[in-house]
Design goal:
- Helix content is 71%, strand content 0%.
- The protein has ten helices and no strands.
- It starts with a helix and ends with a helix.
- It has a single domain, classed as Hypothetical protein af1432 (Orthogonal Bundle), CATH 1.10.3210.
Length: 184
């Protein structure tokens, strides 16, 4: 798994080249690396680890699903490629401001939560890790948006309950702790 994981990490790093994290000044790739590492504490699934590395690529970079799938087919089995692509697509927001500019954030988030509730349990597991990492970053930043973001995470977690149970509990705890810090 390590060699393939490194190749996927390099692909994601190139895709996110030049991007910085919103709330902390670091290369964007550090976030998916942490999300993948967190997932690997709970599962040894290559598809989950790879999807964690790639979870923001389709949403935030010019890389297409076809390009990603072609890359994965060159390093993974067909089954792993198919599952990884399913997870990445499950994790890619559909109800974005760019796609739905006439709809407010609350409507988009509700629709996205409805969609996420129907995603594969492995995608939900990656989303838990994503929430944990994002929560730490936004809380540590001291940004005024943190309480609203954390309430949105709480709403997501109420809907996506099919992933790894241990990581689910960790995500709930991270959001609850973050809210305590930001509301005091």
């Amino acid at each position: 798994m390590n060699k393939i994981w490194e190749q996927v990490k390099d692909f994601a790093a190139i895709a996110h080249e030049g991007q910085k994290r919103k709330y902390i000044n670091e290369p964007y790739i550090n976030h998916p690396i942490r999300v993948s590492a967190y997932c690997q504490r709970y599962t040894n699934s290559l598809s989950i680890a790879a999807a964690a590395l790639l979870h923001d690529v389709l949403e935030d970079t010019p890389v297409t699903a076809n390009e990603m799938e072609s890359f994965l087919k060159g390093i993974m089995s067909d089954g792993e490629t198919k599952h990884t692509m399913r997870l990445v697509k499950d994790l890619t927001d559909v109800y974005t401001h760019a796609a739905w500019p006439h709809m407010n954030r609350r409507w988009r988030k509700e629709k996205e939560n409805d969609r996420l509730a129907k995603t594969h349990p492995d995608a939900q597991t990656v989303k838990y890790a994503d929430i944990i990492d994002n929560t730490k970053d936004i809380v540590d930043s001291g940004d005024d948006f943190a309480p609203k973001y954390l309430q949105e995470c709480r709403a997501i977690l109420q809907r996506i309950t099919k992933g790894n149970a241990e990581m689910y509990r960790a995500a709930i705890e991270a959001v609850d702790e973050g809210l305590k810090k930001t509301l005091h």
